[in-house]
Amino acid sequence: EAAGPGRRAERERCEEGPAERGPGAAFHMFVLMEDLLDKLKLLSYEEQALRRHNMRPLSRHYFALPTNPGEQFFMFCTLAAWLITKAGRPFEQPQEYDDPNAVISNVLSELRSF
């Protein structure tokens, strides 16, 4: 190979799946979700964000497992809007039936302006 054996090994590492990276790699998303939930609880998300919208608290694995993409997307957008507002920027709460592309575009635009 013209690029040399080092490049081939690097490419193969990039193509490895979770099982090839180690026994705990498949559970990394669950650990991230638990960390996220701990941080949201420290910010009192249940009282400040969820009760306001009459939503249930997140489970430990809410975003780690794809169960209901529409509901999960709306929850993500609700939390993103709340966090942006909590950071001191005015941000309109997205509605459940808003265009997902427009909502994500607005969230990303606001985050880029930070």
What distinguishing features does this structure have?
114 residues; globular; Intra-flagellar_transport_57; Intraflagellar transport protein 57 homolog; cilium; cell projection
How are the SSEs placed, and which strands pair?
Blueprint: H1 5-14, H2 18-21, H3 28-42, H4 45-50, H5 69-86, H6 100-112
Describe the structure.
This protein is mainly alpha-helical and 114 residues long. The chain is built from 6 helices and no strands. The chain has helices spanning 5-14, 18-21, 28-42, 45-50, 69-86, 100-112. The longest helix has 18 residues, at 69-86. The chain starts with a helix and ends with a helix.
- Approximately how much beta-strand content do the residues carry? under 5%
Low-confidence stretches: none
Q: How many beta-strand segments?
A: 0
* Biggest sheet record: none
Structural class: mainly alpha
Q: Report mean pLDDT, rounded to a whole number.
A: 85
Radius of gyration: 19 Å
Tally of contiguous helical segments: 6
What is the molecular shape? globular
The topology string of helices and strands comes to: HHHHHH
Report, as a whole number of angstroms, the end-to-end distance. 45 Å
Q: How much helix is in the residues?
A: 55-70%
